[in-house]
Each structure stands twice: as structure tokens, then as C-alpha cells.
Design goal:
The protein has 88 residues and is an all-alpha fold. The chain is 49% helix and 0% strand. It is built from four helices and no strands. α1 packs across α2. The N and C termini lie far apart (30 Å).
């Protein structure tokens, strides 16, 4: 199993992919393997809309700004949601 080489590289504001994975685990109770961040949301066991709401709320606190929910709803992976959160 390979790990993402950008996992410890800080995103703007210092919120890394490792930070994000911990946040997903803390807020949803879903421990993620490194490869699952890029997996389609449909492939994640037990993923549902409540997890998404919890995650967006926690992400907004973590990055200190609003996240465009319309774009989050179009995201197909946790990686895409992370990229939306840190891209500004």
C-alpha cells in the first residue's frame, strides 16, 4: 500500500492531508487507510450525508472559513473535499 507523498506537506494555512485524515476519523468515526482518501465516496463503508455535514462543519472550523457546499456536494472523494477546503 503506497502513501501519498503530499500527506505531510502543509496546505495554505497549514492544514495538511494528515490533519484532514485525523479530522475525518474524529468527526465521523471512520478510520481511513491512506488509499481511501482518493476512493469514490460510494466505496467508503457506512459513508452517508450525516458524515458529510459533520465533516463540512468541522472543516470550516479547521480552515477558518466557509467551504462552498455546492461544490462539496459535487465531490466524488474525500480528497476532492480536502482540495476544496484548502484551495480557498
Amino acid at each position: 500500500m503506497s502513501t501519498d507523498s503530499t500527506a505531510s506537506v502543509p496546505a495554505p494555512g497549514g492544514f495538511t492531508l494528515d490533519d484532514y485524515v485525523r479530522l475525518v476519523d474524529d468527526e465521523t468515526g471512520m478510520p481511513l487507510a491512506p488509499g481511501q482518501v482518493a476512493a469514490d465516496l460510494d466505496e467508503l463503508p457506512d459513508w452517508d450525508s450525516l458524515h458529510l455535514l459533520k465533516l463540512v462543519t468541522a472543516l470550516e472550523t479547521a480552515v477558518g472559513r466557509r467551504i462552498p457546499v455546492g461544490k462539496v456536494l459535487e465531490a466524488r472523494s474525500l480528497q476532492e473535499i480536502y482540495e476544496l477546503a484548502v484551495s480557498g
